[in-house]
Structure of diguanylate cyclase:
Amino acid sequence: MDNLKPPATITPDELSKLTLAWLNKYQLAPTPINYAVIYACSHPNNQKLRSELQQLIANNQTPDNYLLAELHQKYLEENLQADNETLSAIHKVIVNLQTVCEKSQSDVSQYQSTLHSQASKLNDTDNQHTVDIVNTIIVATEKAQLAQNQFKDSIYASQNDIKTLQQKLKTAQQQAQTDSLTGLANRRGMENFLNTLTSTSHICALLFDIDNFKQLNDTYGHGVGDIILQKVAQQIAQLLGPEHIAIRYGGEEFLVLMINQARDDVFMYAETVRENIEKLKLVHGKTRKRLPQVTISVGLSLNRQKLSVAEAIEQADSALYQAKSSGKNRVCLSS
C-alpha cells in the first residue's frame, strides 16, 4: 500500500495487514492514532487525507508519530465529537423511555393489586363464571407485569451500554488531544487548554528544541530518536504545575505555556529542565554503548506586557533562534 490506496476489492483483514505493513515500513508503532490514520486512507471519503499524506511523502517528509497525529486531528477528530453527540442524544431518549416504563410498571402493579383485592371479594359469591373471568385477567396482568420487568431490564442494559460507549469515546477524545509518543498535549490539546483561560491570564511561552536531533536520529535510528523525545518530554513535564501545559509542538520541538507565573520562576524552570537533560546518561538498547550527550536550547518570551498566545510564541521562537545561534545548550530570553 505504498500509494496508500489499496486494491478496489479487499477484505478488512487484508487491509489491516497492509496498514501494519505500511507502519512497519516507516518504523512506526501501530498506536491507535497511527493505525486509524493509515487505515482511514483507504476509505473513499478520505481522499483529502490520502492526498495530503502522499504529497508530504513526495516532498521527502518522513512520516512520524507527530505528523500522523496532526493528520488525525485535522481529518478524523470531528467524527469523535459527532459520535459523542449522537450517543448523548440516544442516552436522553433511553432515560425518557425508562421513566415512561417505570410509570407504566407502577400503573400495572396498582391495577394488578386492585384485581387481586376484587377477586378475593368474588370468592365469597356463587358466581363462578365471573370469578373465572377475573382470574384470567389476573394471569394476563401478571404476564404483562413480567414483560414490563423484562423491558425495564433491557432498558437498564442499554443505558449501561451507552455509558460504556460514552466513556470509551471520552478516552478516545483525550487520546486525540495527546501526542501518542511523548504523552504531552498536541495542538488540539493546546487549543482546548487555551479555551479554559480568562481574559486576565498572562501567558509566557517557552520553546524547547533538541540540539542536533536530526543527526542523532539519522545515526542511531528512529527507535533511539523516539526514546530521546520521550526522555526530554518527561523532563519538561515532571516539573510543570497543573495550571500550565506542555505541548509537542514539532518533530523535536516542545512548547510550554505558563500562566500567571513570575519571571524568575519561569527562567528557573527552563534552566532546571536544561540542566537535567544535560545530565541524562542514555545507553543504546542493543549495543549497551553510551549515546552522545543530549542537550536542548530554550527560548522564552518574558515581555512584561500582556501578549496574545501567537505573540508570545513568536517571541519565544526568536529567542530560541538566538539560543541556537549562540552555541546551543542554553536558555535565551526575548528582547
In short: The chain has a mean pLDDT of 81. Residues 12-75 form one domain. The beta strands are 203-210, 245-248, 253-259, 296-300, 331-333. The chain has three domains: 12-75, 78-176, 187-333.
